[in-house]
Specification:
InterPro entries: Thioredoxin, Thioredoxin-like_sf, Thioredoxin_CS, Thioredoxin_domain
Protein name: Thioredoxin
GO molecular function, one term: protein-disulfide reductase activity
CATH class: Alpha Beta
Radius of gyration: 14 Å
Mean pLDDT: 93
Largest sheet: 5 strands, mixed
Number of helices: 5
Number of strands: 5
Order of helices and strands: EHEHEHEEHH
Oligomer: single chain
Helix content: 40-55%
Number of domains: 1
Keywords: Disulfide bond, Redox-active center
CATH architecture: 3-Layer(aba) Sandwich
Family: Belongs to the thioredoxin family.
CATH superfamily: Glutaredoxin
Distance between the termini: 41 Å
Strand content: 15-25%
């Protein structure tokens, strides 16, 4: 699956309606963003079951602010609608693949239950 540009209107539905979603927050003037784009796109071809979304922080400033994006590129990951990663900086291909495997292995339901038990 190729990457998909999403807007603020599509953001919530995208993360809620898909098992794993990776979101690349970027801007056209950002050198590291341009360097990371081919890595992100190549990874999307290897993992067709994952949604690879891109958010242009210039066009979607309110969404970037709501997501508390302080540096770009920033990669966010969601599993079953739950945020599981927020990492600034471009990643090399091997590091991105490692993160994807960690996200796949993460039992988000058990993590949420453990967090809720700790708050009781």
């Amino acid at each position: 699956m190729a990457t998909k540009d999403i807007t603020a209107e599509e953001f919530e539905k995208t993360i809620k309606d898909n098992d794993i979603v990776l979101v690349d927050f970027w801007a056209s003037w950002c050198g590291p963003c341009k360097a990371f784009a081919p890595t992100f796109a190549a990874s999307s071809e290897k993992h067709p079951d994952i949604v690879y979304a891109k958010v242009d922080t210039e066009a979607e400033q309110q969404l970037a602010a709501a997501a508390d994006i302080r540096a770009i590129p920033t990669l966010m990951a969601f599993k079953k609608g739950t945020p599981v990663l927020n990492r600034a900086g471009a990643l090399p291909p091997a590091a991105l693949e490692d993160l994807i495997q960690q996200i796949r292995d993460l039992d988000v339901d058990a993590a949420i239950a453990a967090q809720e038990d700790g708050q009781s």
